[in-house]
Amino acid sequence: DAGVIQSPRHEVTEMGQEVTLRCKPISGHNSLFWYRQTMMRGLELLIYFNNNVPIDDSGMPEDRFSAKMPNASFSTLKIQPSEPRDSAVYFCASSLGTSGRVQETQYFGPGTRLLVL
Amino acid sequence: AQKITQTQPGMFVQEKEAVTLDCTYDTSDPSYGLFWYKQPSSGEMIFLIYQGSYDQQNATEGRYSLNFQKARKSANLVISASQLGDSAMYFCAMMEGADGLTFGKGTHLIIQP
Fold first, then answer.
1. CA distance to partner chain B, nearest, from residue A81 (Å)
2. Concatenated DSSP letters for A66-79?
3. In this structure, are residues A35 and A100 in contact, taking their beta carbons and an 8 Å threshold?
4. Which of A108, B26, B53, B70 could form a disulfide with B45 if both were Cys (CB 3.0 to 4.6 A apart)?
5. B38 CB-contact burial (10 Å; exposed 0-12 / middle 13-18 / buried 19+)
6. Among A3, A4, A15, which Cα is nearest to A86's?
């Protein structure tokens, strides 16, 4: 079975440019999560969706960040305009998302390493 | 206050020895789950083991076991018979309700031959 797929795996861009990160969750999973990992702040939850609906976006750092999930098999995280402090590894994860009060294992994609110059 | 605390930034362990990685947590939600993930130098996040707050028995998965002490709010990971391939960062994480994961800062484990 294919795991969570993320693209691109590496992205180098210049400050001010728009960056779009993509994620395909595991087929049949209803919850999708975006995390960011930096040396300074560790792993942080940015936003998560359940059945394509954003449930909690309180971790999104600024209005420059936006995320969408137009269908069950695709999500994007967009940064516009990008800044050097956005440099990080961005992970997408998915879980079954079958119940509102049951903890389900999240499976992570390989991550996108973003460098903003 | 930190929700997940991992007090060991780094550990060196001899191959074949057992390893205990510490994790304490803080929550007032009666329904929560505790997870351990492994992150090797290649960067991926690998799920290892899960313990639910209502589980009566400690979770085990092969060489991994979770020493769950609810009253002390600790969820230590035990790796038996360590191998060179166990060298990696290990993250403890908590899920309250069905929300996202809150991670600790991690422990860098190095297995020495």
1. 26
2. EEEEEETTEEEEEE
3. no
4. A108
5. buried
6. A15
Q: How confident is the model at residue A98 (pLDDT cuts 50, 70, 90)?
A: confident
> Please, are residues A5 and A63 in contact by the beta-carbon 8 Å criterion?
no
B32 CB neighbours in chain A (<8 A) are: 103
* Helices and strands of chain B, counted as H and E runs: 0, 12
pLDDT in tens, B77-105: 999 999 999 999 999 999 997 789 999 99
| Three-state secondary-structure class, residue B88 | strand
Contact yes or no for A101 and B97 at CB 8 A: yes
Question: What are the φ/ψ torsions at residue B69 (nearest 5 degrees)?
Answer: -120, 95
Select from B77, B46, B53, B55 the least CA-distant residue to B64: B77
Residues of A in contact with B47 (CB under 8 A): 105-108
- Annotate B39-64 with DSSP letters as a single string: E-TT---EEEEEEETT-SS--EETTE
B68 touches chain A (CB under 8 A): no
In contact, A62 and A70? CB cutoff 8 Å: no
- Mean predicted confidence (pLDDT) in A58-64: 92
> What is the CB neighbour count within 10 angstroms for residue A55?
17
Phi, psi of A31 (to 5 degrees): -115, 140
> Is the pLDDT reported for residue A85 higher than 80?
yes
First to last CA, chain A: 36
Closest CA to A65 of A90, A41, A42: A90
